[in-house]
Amino acid sequence: MTILIKNVLVEGREKNIYIEGNEIAAITDAGSGRSKVREAEFVIDGKRKAVIPGLFNGHTHAAMTLLRGYADDMPLHEWLSTKIWPLEARITEEDVYWGTKLACLEMIKSGTTFFNDMYWYWGGSTRAVAESGIRAMLSAVFIDGFDEEKAKEQIKRNEALYRESKKLPKRIIFALGPHAIYTVSEESLCWVRDFSERHDLLVHIHLSETEAEVEECIKRYGMRPVEFLDRIGFLSSRTIACHCIHLSRKEMELLRKNDVKIVHNPGSNMKLSSGTLPYEELKKAGLYANIALGTDGCASNNNLDMIEEMKIASLVHKALSGDPTSMPAHEAFELATRNAAKMFRLNSGVIEEGKLADIALIDLTKVELVPNHNLTSNIVYSANGSCVDTVICDGEILMEGRKVNGEDEIKEKAQEVAYELVNRKSP
Amino acid sequence: MTILIKNVLVEGREKNIYIEGNEIAAITDAGSGRSKVREAEFVIDGKRKAVIPGLFNGHTHAAMTLLRGYADDMPLHEWLSTKIWPLEARITEEDVYWGTKLACLEMIKSGTTFFNDMYWYWGGSTRAVAESGIRAMLSAVFIDGFDEEKAKEQIKRNEALYRESKKLPKRIIFALGPHAIYTVSEESLCWVRDFSERHDLLVHIHLSETEAEVEECIKRYGMRPVEFLDRIGFLSSRTIACHCIHLSRKEMELLRKNDVKIVHNPGSNMKLSSGTLPYEELKKAGLYANIALGTDGCASNNNLDMIEEMKIASLVHKALSGDPTSMPAHEAFELATRNAAKMFRLNSGVIEEGKLADIALIDLTKVELVPNHNLTSNIVYSANGSCVDTVICDGEILMEGRKVNGEDEIKEKAQEVAYELVNRKSP
């Protein structure tokens, strides 16, 4: 497939973008004599639109869209134990499929072309992602509860999923998803470490999200979470550590030494009062390029809008540091694009020839983007997901003029599934 | 004019809403035998929509939409002195008119039907508001810089504006706008106090926004800002005090004693690293019903989306208090509706017969509102301004199906004016 986007703003200048297969094949000056407009199967009018890299949602549990607004404003443990876990105990693969379909739709509609997921029923998620056209890294929740039998099951299951993943479209990437150090045994973590190294797989883990996690780790292993993972050789440049809130200086240094990747989830962390990623300190420790942004799941955010997430990220660091220059707009934007692409080993995250055609067009006629003194500022501080007009992922047009194929059916069916799920009797 | 909204969700039930003149004349069960549908000049299909009170933006400087994204991520004083003030020195009434037109458009598009404004060129603002159909309380910036001559001018000007305001449509309300205690002399503040009492006018003031303000006040008057205003008898139930970040216990008690109204601007306060309103403490002091929400101006937010502001408000208090039950969704929603209506002495802020027809319809088919387990949660935590489909203010339809009359011209002209302003030579 070939796509031509005519007269679109690329960093303030009108250009033509020519997409061939799943790549940006050429970017030429619009209207200049030298640029002959190539023919293409699809032509998109880019007038009054600006192109940006498709956004990266670095950490989510996509199918939790089903639980959006189901339980909010509760103490963390009560929320988990009385609301989220009982529901998740009766969730089915079909639920996960529809929840993930809804999530993919929401992400496409807000300019996200990649997400990093960890959830139950990997088969449901992969089916939804395969159909949606979005790019994703999908891991199955690996929890053994320190039980040897369960550990064996999980290992067997992940080996099978890894084999299965080879049959999927290339835009679906398999990752290992050990849930956290308080739900996965040391033995299983070591298996993850070895399997990830052998097959060069990324590892998606929750790390130092709450103070309770740190305290429990000190009790169990006599050291803090990052220290423990370093001791067992778990940490590497393949580790995608999500949250990373409660860190000592020494732990930050260990993260740097091991080139660990970090996903910041400011909205979820604020909503659950978990604390905040020590952004300025991590930057000082040399980890800036290793940080991406995520929304977390919809039960704790409650949307998947990465444009909103960039603003929340910047605001919370300005507020906490007392320094209005903290996390300027261009950094928040890089966290959601360039940094994330590198972290997930994708040839994208910037608009350049030869990069993957994972892009979004911003509608510059939206009132919140007028005037346009500074597009990055406008996107980060004023826009929201509804300012995205067109989304292309892997060279396919997933949304044009805010229309996505099959949208109504997805919303209706997912809503039905969600209502049925919350009213379902325990098994 | 009469408007009938058919089959719209009112607190979870399908109703018909009948609007006559500028009031909600009747709310009847949809589809029930007893409710004969009255005829109306305009009929709106409310299917898959929910009605909410139009939102209140409790504090803004509307025309600053012109400076959206013009200067961000800078230290406060440098930002004001090198960017904002020099531009404001050369702003004209025509600029203010177009900036306010743009602001009104943005507010209508995000469900806001009332805003409380303080800015230069009151005439420009009132003209824009009169044309837009939105409801507003407009004050002229009153700054005398502790100069007796300027004070006299300002007093004369405000007396004239007050007289002029009587000719305006009733939905435009005149208020006094003494900028702050560090820009207005004690004598002028006393004049404001007396004039406001004599004519029963609300008074819009910035109060305790920065630590520097508090320090300066202690130097100048030997006491803290709220103590000073209490001493001169300035505080009353007519005082709309914006920001209120740096408050002692004693000051909170003085605010309560004087029934002062408070506007919280979390987005702006975070972006400028000003600190945060002590929400839980003010609630404990019995001031909950006196608190509303505002966006502040677009130079420091950078949009006027009250739906986004509700989320930011709730998140920042959950994050700072360490308590995820802090400012639950229904409180954030009340701050932007019921509380604000009372504060600005308007018979609105709730959906009831006899209330002003200042309402918004939410489009429940938006992907971020699916599923709809809890509408208030969805609006506060997941929606943004683009989920608003229809806006009615003072009984007039200002937006239907997201279309506002004259929208394109307003955006084009305001953009032109904004670019011309930032490139204009100093006078």
Radius of gyration of chain A using CA atoms only: 21 Å
Helix count, DSSP H or I runs of 4 or more residues of chain A: 15
- Most residues in contact, chain pair and counts: A-B, 70 and 70 residues
**CATH superfamily placement of the largest domain in chain A:** Metal-dependent hydrolases
List how many beta strands of chain A DSSP finds. 16
User: Strand fraction band of chain A?
Assistant: 15-25%
Structural class category of chain A: alpha/beta
Count of distinct structural domains of chain A: 2
Helix content of chain A: 25-40%
CATH class wording of the largest domain in chain A: Alpha Beta
Low-confidence stretches of chain A: none
**What's the quaternary structure here?**
homodimer
Let me know the average pLDDT of chain A: 96
N-to-C CA distance of chain A: 47 Å
CATH architecture of the largest domain in chain A: Alpha-Beta Barrel
